[in-house]
Design a protein that fits this description.
The structure is a single chain. The chain is mostly helical and about 100 residues long. It has a domain at about 1-15 and about 40-85. The chain has helices spanning about 1-20, 30-45, 65-70, 70-85. Helix 1 runs antiparallel to helix 4 (about 70-85). The longest helix has 19 residues, at about 1-20. The chain is globular, with a radius of gyration of 13 Å.
């Protein structure tokens, strides 16, 4: 699951430059809704929702793939935190 989230983030970032050029060819929205949002709900909601937003990160403010692409800085930070296994915290449930 960690790989799925990291892969999705990278795909969004790669697609964002294509999107800006008007040649976006993929449709990531169904994957975001059916796969990524449930992962975020399971592993990130406790600390990174509007109610708490630790580190000033509210991952549930991102309702669409376009909103993810519009804030590449946050999602690159998410990728870094996942890659270095700083998130989720060691005492929290871990994605496989």
């Amino acid at each position: 699951m960690r790989t799925t989230l990291v892969g999705f983030v990278m795909l969004c970032m790669a697609q964002s430059s294509v999107w800006a050029q008007g040649t976006f060819t993929g449709n990531l929205e169904p994957a975001y809704e059916s796969t990524i949002q449930p992962l975020l709900q399971s592993y990130c909601n406790e600390c990174h929702s509007a109610a708490l937003a630790e580190g000033d990160v509210d991952l549930f403010a991102f309702k669409t793939v376009v909103s993810v692409q519009d804030d590449a800085k946050t999602w690159l930070k998410v990728r870094q935190m996942l890659d270095t296994k700083q998130m989720p915290p060691k005492d929290s449930p871990q994605p496989t």
